[in-house]
Design a protein that fits this description.
The protein has 9 helices and no strands. It has helices at 2-32, 40-50, 55-77, 86-124, 127-133, 138-176, 181-191, 194-220, 225-255. With 256 residues, it is mainly alpha-helical. The longest helix has 39 residues, at 86-124. Helix 4 (86-124) runs parallel beside helix 8 (194-220).
C-alpha cells in the first residue's frame, strides 16, 4: 500500500518539476519573441508544417466524431421524444469540447512529436551547440516560430473540425435517421451562441501553446543519442496529451 502511495507521490512530484522547467522555457520563449529580427519566413514555414499538413487528419477526426455523436445522442434522446435536440448536442459538443480537444490531440501526435524528434536530433548531433557557437540563439531560432505557429493554426484547425463535425452530424441525423431538418437546424440556431465558439477557440489556442512548448522542451533537453530521441518523442506526446486534458477541465470550469 505504502509502496503504491510512494510511487504515485514520486510520479506527481516529477511531473510538477518538469512542468516548472517547461514554464521557465515558456518565459524565455515569450521574452525572445519580442526581440528582433522577426523571422516571418520561419513562422510561415512552421504554420505550413503544423497546420496545412494536419488538415486531412483533422477533417477525418471531426467528421467521424460528429457522426458518432449524432448517432449516440439520437438513441438517448429518442427515449424522451427529443430527437430534434440532436443537432444542438452535436454543435455544442463540437464547438465547446470535442473540436478543440481532439484537434489538439491529433496535432500533438502529428506535429508535436515531429518537433521533439527534429529538435532532439539537432541536440544529440550537436547542431544546437553549433548555433550557440555562431551566436544564434536556439530558442529564438527553433522554439519561438514553432510555438507562435501552433498558437495561430490550432484554432483554425479547430474551426475546420467544428464545421466538418456539424456537417457529419447533420448527415447522420437528417439524411440517415430522418430527423426533421427544419427543427434540427432551428434548435441549433436557437441554443448555440457565439460565445460557445469563441471560448472553444480560446481553448484551442492554449492547447496549441501546450503541445508546442512541451514538444520543443522534450527535444531541447534530449540526451542519449538515437534512443534518447525516440524516448523524448514518446514522452512529448504522452505529457502533452495529459496536460491538454488537465488544462481542458480548468478552462471549461473558468470559461463556461
Amino acid at each position: 500500500m505504502w509502496k503504491a502511495v510512494n510511487t504515485v507521490g514520486e510520479g506527481a512530484a516529477g511531473y510538477l518539476k518538469e512542468m516548472g522547467r517547461i514554464f521557465l522555457l515558456l518565459l524565455d520563449t515569450a521574452r525572445w519573441s519580442l526581440y528582433p529580427p522577426f523571422r516571418f519566413d520561419l513562422l510561415f514555414q512552421q504554420m505550413e508544417r503544423v497546420g496545412v499538413r494536419s488538415v486531412l487528419v483533422v477533417v477525418l477526426t471531426g467528421a467521424f466524431t460528429g457522426m458518432v455523436l449524432a448517432l449516440q445522442t439520437f438513441y438517448a434522446t429518442r427515449k424522451f421524444g427529443a430527437e430534434t435536440m440532436v443537432g444542438v448536442t452535436v454543435a455544442l459538443g463540437m464547438a465547446r469540447e470535442l473540436g478543440p480537444v481532439l484537434t489538439s490531440i491529433m496535432v500533438t501526435g502529428r506535429a508535436g512529436s515531429a518537433m521533439a524528434a527534429e529538435i532532439g536530433t539537432m541536440r544529440v548531433t550537436e547542431q544546437i551547440d553549433a548555433l550557440f557557437a555562431m551566436a544564434v540563439n536556439p530558442i529564438k531560432y527553433l522554439i519561438v516560430p514553432r510555438v507562435l505557429a501552433s498558437i495561430l493554426v490550432v484554432p483554425i484547425l479547430t474551426i475546420i473540425a467544428d464545421f466538418v463535425g456539424i456537417v457529419g452530424g447533420y448527415f447522420v441525423g437528417v439524411i440517415i435517421l430522418r430527423i426533421n431538418a427544419g427543427a434540427y437546424v432551428a434548435n441549433m440556431e436557437k441554443y448555440v451562441e457565439l460565445t460557445d465558439i469563441n471560448n472553444g477557440l480560446i481553448k484551442a489556442a492554449v492547447f496549441g501553446l501546450i503541445l508546442s512548448i512541451i514538444g520543443c522542451y522534450k527535444g531541447f533537453t534530449t540526451t542519449g543519442g538515437a534512443e534518447g530521441v525516440g524516448k523524448a518523442t514518446t514522452q512529448s506526446v504522452v505529457l502533452a496529451a495529459v496536460t491538454i486534458l488537465m488544462a481542458d477541465y480548468l478552462l471549461t470550469a473558468a470559461l463556461f
